[in-house]
Amino acid sequence: MTLTDLRQQLTQGDTTPAKLIEDLSVRIQAKDGTTQAYVSYGSQAAGDIDLSKPLGGLPIGIKDNINTFGQPCTCGSKFLEKTYTSPYDATVITKLKEAGAIPFGRLNMDEFAMGSATENSAIQLTRNPHDPDRITGGSSGGSAAAVAAGTAFATLGSDTGGSIRQPASHCGVVGLKPTYGRVSRFGLVAFASSLDQIGPLTQTVDDAALILQAIAGYDSRDTTSLDVPVPDYSATINDGVKGLKLGIPAEYFGEGIHPGVRENVEKRIEHLRSLGAEIVPISMPHTKHAVATYYVIAPAEASSNLSRFDGIRYGNRADNAEDIIDVYHKSREAGFGPEVKRRIILGTYVLSSGYYDAYYSRAQKVRQLITRDFKQAFEKVDAIITPVAPTPARKIGSCAEDPLQDYLSDIFTIPANLAGVPAISVPCGTTAFDGAAALPVGIQILAPHLGEAMLLRVAKAAEQA
Ligand code: GLN
Asked: N or C: which end of the chain has fewer CB within 10 A?
C-alpha cells in the first residue's frame, strides 16, 4: 500500500501506527531472510503521534548512513558495526518526526556508500526481490529492495553519483535525488560532500513528493543548505506534460545501452509526446567525461571525509597497536573494506602535491563544463529524459574482478550530481536480460536547480503511462 493509501486508513481508524509496525515486522521476518535489506530494525519511540500531520503514523525505513538518535549506524562497514550508536538525529530524521513519521529500521548499503551493487557492504549481501541471483544496485540497495519487497512502505537513501536512482531502477521503484542543498546533509555520514544528497525511495511519485515535502528546507547546520522556500509539490504534480518541452540528449542513448532499456525508455518518451509534450533532441557534449571527473572528485573528498575514522574518535580501535600512529594504521587496515581503501588511496593521490593540478583542478574545470551543458539545455527545455542505467540488474558476483565495469554503469546518473540538479528514477517497464525473463527498467527525468515541482510533474505523467 502506498503512503497515500495508508494515510487514509490511519485517519479513518482502519489501522494504527502500532499495527503498521507489527505488520512490517511480520513481513520482514517472512521475507527479509532472502532479501537481506535490513541491517537491523526496531522502531524509535515515536512519542505522541499526531495522525493529522502529513506523514502522521507512517513508518519510514532509513539507509544505514543517516544518524538516528540511539540507533546503530553501520554505514555498511565493519569499522562502525557493533560499537557506534548515533548520539543525535540527522536533520532529515528530525523533520520526518516533526511530520509525524516513525523512522523504522536500518537499511543495508555499500560500505560508506561506495558502490553500485550493495555488494561492497561488509555486513551482508542484499538480493534483488525480482530475482535473488541479481544485485539490487547501490549504494542504497537495502532502501530500494525493502520497498520492492514490500518490507518497507517507503525509505530514505543517499545519492552521490546515482545511489538512490540506480537501485530504484534495478528494483522497480521510484527514487528521487533532490537539488544539491535542497535537503540538509546534517547527520548524513559524509562520502563526497559536494555531491551527497538525501532523498526518498517510494512506490509512487506521489509518495516521493510527500516525503520530499517533509524533508526539504533550509538548515543552518548545513552550510550548503539553500535558504529558499519549499513550494507545495502537490499543487502542480497533476498538471501533466501538455505544452512542456522535454529534451532528449543524444549522448545518453549511444553505445553500450541495452536494447531492452532503450526500447522501454523510448516507448515512454513516445507516450509523453502523445500526452502533448514536445520532444526536443538536445546535445550534452561533456557527458562522456562525467565518470572520469566523478572518480577524481568523489575519492578526493572521501579521502578527506574518511580521515575521521581513526580508531580514536570514530571507528573500532585495534587493540594490538604499539603507539598512536600504529593505532591509526591498524584500526584503518582492519576497519575499511577493499573498495573504501581503493577510494582513499585514489583520493589521496589526486590531491597530493604535484598531481593536484593535473587531476583535481582539472576535474573541477570539467565539472563546470558539465554544469554548463545542463544550463544551456535548460534554456531550451523544461526537463530532460534519459535512461537511469545502461543495463538492468546484473548477476551477483559478475563484476568481482573488475570494479571499473561498475564505475561505468553510473554514466547516466553521475552528471546530475556533478551539476547539482534534481533527478528522479521512475519504473518504465521490464526487459529480458542475461538469462532473466523480466527485469525492471527505469526512466530518468532531470530538471533545473530547485525544479523539483517540474520534475515531479513530468515524473507523474511518465509513471501513469
Ligand atoms: N556508484 C557510485 C560510487 O560508487 C555512486 C555511489 C553513491 O551515489 N553513493 O561512488
From this structure: N
Percent helix, strand and coil across the chain, each to the nearest 5: 40, 15, 40
Q: Is 139 in the active site?
A: yes
Q: Which residue has a Cα nearest atom 10 of ligand 1?
A: 114
Is 161 close to ligand 1, i.e. is its CB under 6 Å away? yes
Any residues with CB less than 8 A from the CB of 3 and at least 6 apart, and which? 55, 58, 153, 154, 202, 203, 206, 207, 210, 211
The DSSP element (H or E) to which 157 belongs, if any, is strand 155-159
Q: Is 166 in the pocket of ligand 1 (CB under 6 A)?
A: no
Tens-digit pLDDT profile for residues 33-44: 999 999 999 765
Q: Is 114 in the pocket of ligand 1 (CB under 6 A)?
A: yes
In angstroms, the Cα distances linking 69 to 93, 326, 439 are: 9, 32, 37
> What is the 8-class DSSP label of residue 72?
B
Query: Can 274 be counted among the known catalytic residues?
Result: no
Cα–Cα distance, 455 to 409 (Å, whole number): 23
Distance from residue 20's CA to the centre of ligand 1 (Å): 32
For ligand 1, the distance from its centroid to the CA atom of residue 362, given in whole angstroms, is 21
Which domains occur in the chain, in start order?
A: 1-283+383-465 (3.90.1300.10)
Q: What does the pLDDT read at residue 322?
A: 96
Nearest to 178 by CA among 256, 95, 243: 95
Which CA distances in Å does 86 have to 66, 215, 264, 276, 412?
9, 19, 42, 49, 34
**Rounded Cα gap, residues 174 and 154, in angstroms:** 10
**What integer is the mean pLDDT of 84-113?**
97
Find the length of the chain.
Answer: 465
Amino acid at 213: Q
Q: Across 193-349, where does the E strand assignment appear? A: 197-202, 245-249, 278-282
Ligand 1 within 6 A of CB of 163: yes
What is each CA distance from 304 to 193, 273, 351, 451, in whole angstroms? 10, 46, 10, 31
On average, the pLDDT of the chain sits at 96
CA of 140 to the centre of ligand 1 (A): 9
Catalytic member of 25, 77, 86, 139: 139
118 lines ligand 1 (CB under 6 A): no
C-alpha cell at 431: 526487459
Report whether the peptide linkage leading into residue 139 is cis, meaning its omega lies within 30 degrees of zero. yes
Cell (9 digits) for 18: 502500532
**Residue 442, all three cell numbers:** 527505469
- d(Cα 19, Cα 198) in Å, to the nearest integer? 28
Rg (CA), the chain: 21
Does the active-site annotation cover 330?
Answer: no
| Residue 346 φ/ψ, nearest 5 degrees | -60, -45
